[in-house]
Amino acid sequence: MALDLSDETISKLVDQLISKGSDFAKTESEKQLRNTKDLLKNYRLLENHLDVDLPRLEDETPLSKYELSLYSLLGYRARSKEMIQFINQIVERYRKICSEGTPEQMRRFNVIYDVYIGHPKQNRYELARRYNVDEKTIRRDERIAIHEISVMLFGIDAINDMSK
Known about the structure:
Elements: H1 7-33, H2 36-41, H3 43-51, H4 65-99, H5 103-117, H6 124-131, H7 135-154, H8 156-163
């Protein structure tokens, strides 16, 4: 059974589909920007990004394309450094909150720290053995800790993301 739709109705439907699609893409994009797990997964790489020496630029010569790209790299490094410092402050505050809580909360902090930040990196199996719990418990601790750190990093937007 075919529907007879006017050009006006078809146009309205297409407009609504396009606007809903762009709203969905925007929401997904915002979630990706606030992806705490990705931040934690890449923490060590960001840290190493700050340790690599960049060539020095001469102040008296006109800037070539190469030098302009080095300025861009310096900008990336500055933003990375600010983000690492911010993450370190949040992680330290999270450690303090967990240390004043239950043993389970402290374990959550240790799981996040040992899996993503600490040196040497530890895997979930090793942590399960250390804490004498199932690996599923370690994964649950990790998931809860990531949610809590998300709230500390991104505030109300993290809570809104979780509710969608």
